[in-house]
Amino acid sequence: MANVIQVLGGASLLHQLARDVTTTLDRRLAPLGVTTQQAALLHNAASGGASPSQLMEAVGTDTAGMTKLLDRLEAKGLVERRPNPSDRRSVVIEPTERGLALVPELTAVFGEVARQLFAGFADDEVANLTSSLRRMGENLKR
Questions:
Q1: What is the largest CA-CA distance in the chain?
Q2: Residues near 112 by Cβ (< 8 Å), separated by ≥ 6?
Q3: What is the DSSP letter of 1?
Q4: What predicted TM-score, i.e. pTM, was given to this entire model?
Q5: What does the domain layout of the chain look like in residue ranges?
Q6: How far is residue 97 CA from its own chain's centroid?
């Protein structure tokens, strides 16, 4: 087990990297008129029929944040809240035609940033890092 100094240093690096990735994505998504979180929500909603609670986990926000994200994306004409056909008390989030047309561009930006981030890494290094990050996330949920 790593000592406390190593853990804190690693956590600090992860935090800084997350901020750097978000900053890079925000800059590259700005010409498309969306933020990183808005793009992630739209990308995840593209499969259709997702509830706000399902999307909350995918984009890493809470109920209030999800409401704000949905309000902004609706105002931009990119998503719609529709009644859930299997439960009238809830809604599903559906991308509009305009939103669906934007998804391939979002996917391209996410792919470009991922390629930049992992430049020089071998496939097995990326797989090991991804596995380690998932385990860390699971550890924090315990």
A1: 52
A2: 28
A3: -
A4: 0.85
A5: 34-117
A6: 21
